Amino acid sequence: MRDYVSKMLGDPTHLEEIAMRLTFLGTTSSKGQCPNLYETDRDTYVVQGYEITDPEALAALRERGMPDHETAVEIPKALLGFAPRD
Question: Rounded to two decimals, what is the model's pTM?
Answer without folding.
Answer: 0.70
